[in-house]
Amino acid sequence: MIDEALRTAVKQAWENPERETDVKALMTEVATDVYKFQLFDVEHIADLRNMLEQAWDAGIPLRPPYGIVLNRRGAMLDRRSEGYLAAPSFQAFYQQLLDTYMRPISRLLFPEIIGYDSQSFGFSIHYQPTTDASIRQHTDASSVTLNINMNLPDETFEGSELDVLDAASGDAVRFSFTPGSAMLHRGNVPHAAQPITSGQRSNLVLWLYGERGQIPPQGAQRRAIPARDRWVSSSAEQDDFAPF
Ligand SMILES: O=C(O)CCC(=O)C(=O)O
Ligand SMILES: [Fe+2]
Questions:
Q1: Domains of the chain and CATH, by start
Q2: Would you say 159 and 195 are in contact if contact means Cβ atoms under 8 Å apart?
């Protein structure tokens, strides 16, 4: 499921944290502190989509994220959330994404999140022109957000770009998702999705934050920390706080 180059680099970093530079080398900084990289292997996205679609088609009552505002064909993914997608195979994958990939990579790019990254939240979103087509500019209540595209290679769409505010220039940087690509940014980076004009777009959105929803204080020091402090399993207790 995970892109081969990333999987290999992350595996090496877990074995020897000093090798995390190879992980960083796979990331492209598209705006200040906003990173893009290939996370899913395009050949396997269909497996994930099938899992989500099956739950949907089975009529299992999944709660859409953000109430009904966004998004009618999306689902809650974290066990903290009522009506989440509890399928064990999906949950194992979701947990691995958070623990093996998202947390250490986020600590590598945004060291100040350490201490504010033990808890999680997740949902899937689905845009199409006739129902949920866009989302206005907002920030997320997360320390860090990982947003991954799940479109299949032949599922093209128009519009639906993600605009992220570049803190340095004050301008929005416009970004189009390609299948399996991911964006990683601090929750406090303002972002918006432009209206989708044709086709559909499916994304997986994961959040990390601290106990009871805490996020790093404004202006938290971004001091360097040793690599070995990132590539460690989180032993923190999981609370029941659900942001939505
Ligand atoms: O359209 C997207 O991919 C971003 C969605 C988003 O920012 C959100 O759901 O919080
Ligand atoms: Fe968001």
A1: 26-218 (2.60.120.620)
A2: yes
